[in-house]
């Protein structure tokens, strides 16, 4: 094929590639073949390491080099016979090179087989045509009296310069958009979290509502989950003990941040997190936008409902690698026999994370080989070390005073261990018939 309005050949990776991408975004889309002689159209010798470097740079550009961010519009295909970049026509033209803005140096359109600078009149016309994009987070906030003390704390913590303009929090000059409202101290949308006893909703152990700036809600929710994400420690004679969290922290973080980033804020519902003995469920209002399927999202295609909000979360380092959330959740369960489950409905998206330390045995049916996590740990420790005081058990197993007392009483009542001595001389040991 020859170069035309939809095809471009590039022999090298240079900053000029940004112009080609922007020109395709602002017209009818197109395909860029990288590592090809632009005269003969013959592929050039490109090493795998070079391809990897190009892919890394393009992924960085994807989130940082263009404005607005071209979510779901650029596909990077390094494993094709020729390194390929597919660009779809943008929905919110004009797109610009971010460092240049809406100027003739920043906005390009495709004219024949070339990327050419857009005139000021063309830029103005595109802006007028795109004045109503129907995205909630881009629209003007009803509340314009906004404060950002929590957001500024996050910016300082992550060493990010706080700039309302750079964070895309304005619809027009000095007019806040809804993304600004969501991350402001005045945000009135709440998040609900509950912990249940057992595997159903019959008995509450704890529940709460989280309020405030959306970034603070993410932080508070992750902290609350971490307090209830227990660690199972296995002692098997190896130099180091084996520790397994109920839920992989990477999977929890991805599921929570994605729930906030992609929920439909026009639906009068809330994000809900429910923790059962065997699983954690994260429910977010709104299905997958842009008509994409779960399979396409899993393969790395990107769909975004709140581009300005995603931009803020990315800049404040809540999002590590955009477009890989579901794959990262799957990867967090590698090496186990359990996997996360995703359920897509027209008005909701639910992630179920299985508890890695859960077995079908219940407290009422405990056996010597099937005990609760803390009890199992105490039994193994006493088998290996013989008679121990409560303080020695607590220090070696790093348990709280409450959990030690509770677990010791359970084991004593079941006859698995016994208590000897009194007061400061009290010690605990395995009963003789449980020594095996």
Automatic annotation (TrEMBL):
Residue ranges annotated for the Schlafen AlbA-2 domain, each copy included: 3-118
Entry keyword set: Transcription, Transcription regulation
Alphabetical list of Pfam families matching this protein: HATPase_c_4, HTH_DeoR, SLFN_AlbA_2
UniProt protein name: DNA binding domain-containing protein
Domain HTH deoR-type: 377-420
SUPFAM superfamilies the record matches: Winged helix' DNA-binding domain
Molecular functions (GO terms): DNA-binding transcription factor activity
Protein origin, superkingdom: Bacteria
InterPro entries, alphabetized: DeoR_HTH (IPR001034), RecG_C_sf (IPR038475), Schlafen_AlbA_2_dom (IPR007421), Schlafen_AlbA_2_dom_sf (IPR038461), WH-like_DNA-bd_sf (IPR036388), WH_DNA-bd_sf (IPR036390)
């Amino acid at each position: 094929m020859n170069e035309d309005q939809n095809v471009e050949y590039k022999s090298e990776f240079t900053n000029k590639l940004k112009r080609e991408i922007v020109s395709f975004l602002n017209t009818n889309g197109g395909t860029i073949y990288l590592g090809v002689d632009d005269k003969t159209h013959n592929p050039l010798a490109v090493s795998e390491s070079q391809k990897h470097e190009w892919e890394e740079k393009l992924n960085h550009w994807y989130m940082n080099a263009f404005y607005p961010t071209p979510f779901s519009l650029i596909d990077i295909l390094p494993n094709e016979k020729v390194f390929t970049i597919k660009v779809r026509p943008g929905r919110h033209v004009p797109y610009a090179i971010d460092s240049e803005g809406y100027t003739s140096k920043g906005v390009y359109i495709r004219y024949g087989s070339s990327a050419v600078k857009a005139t000021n009149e063309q830029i103005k016309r595109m802006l007028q045509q795109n004045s109503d994009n129907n995205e909630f987070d881009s629209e003007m906030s009803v509340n314009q009296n906004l404060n950002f003390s929590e957001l500024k704390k996050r910016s300082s913590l992550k060493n990010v310069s706080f700039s309302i303009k750079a964070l895309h929090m304005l619809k027009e000059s000095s007019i806040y958009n809804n993304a600004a409202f969501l991350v402001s101290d005045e945000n009135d949308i709440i998040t609900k979290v509950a912990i249940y006893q057992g595997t159903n909703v019959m008995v509450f152990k704890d529940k709460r509502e989280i309020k405030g700036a959306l970034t603070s809600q993410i932080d508070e929710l992750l902290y609350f989950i971490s307090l209830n994400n227990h660690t199972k420690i296995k002692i098997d004679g190896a130099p180091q003990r084996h520790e397994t969290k109920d839920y992989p922290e990477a999977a929890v973080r991805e599921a929570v941040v994605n729930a906030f980033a992609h929920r439909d804020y026009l639906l009068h519902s809330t994000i809900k997190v429910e923790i059962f003995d065997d699983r954690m469920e994260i429910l977010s209002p709104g299905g997958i936008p842009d008509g994409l399927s779960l399979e396409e999202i899993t393969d790395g295609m990107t769909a975004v409902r709140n581009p300005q909000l995603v931009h803020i979360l990315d800049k404040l380092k809540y999002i590590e690698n955009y477009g890989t959330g579901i794959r990262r959740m799957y990867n967090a369960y590698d090496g186990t026999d359990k996997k996360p489950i995703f359920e897509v409905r027209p008005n909701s998206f639910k992630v179920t994370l299985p508890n890695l330390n859960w077995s079908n045995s219940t407290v009422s049916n405990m056996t010597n080989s099937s005990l609760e996590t803390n009890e199992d740990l105490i039994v193994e420790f006493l088998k290996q070390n013989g008679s121990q005081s409560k303080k020695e058990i607590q220090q070696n197993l790093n348990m709280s005073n409450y959990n030690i007392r509770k677990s010791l009483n359970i084991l004593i009542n079941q006859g698995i261990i016994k208590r000897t001595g009194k007061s400061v001389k009290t010690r605990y040991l395995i009963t003789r018939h449980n020594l095996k």
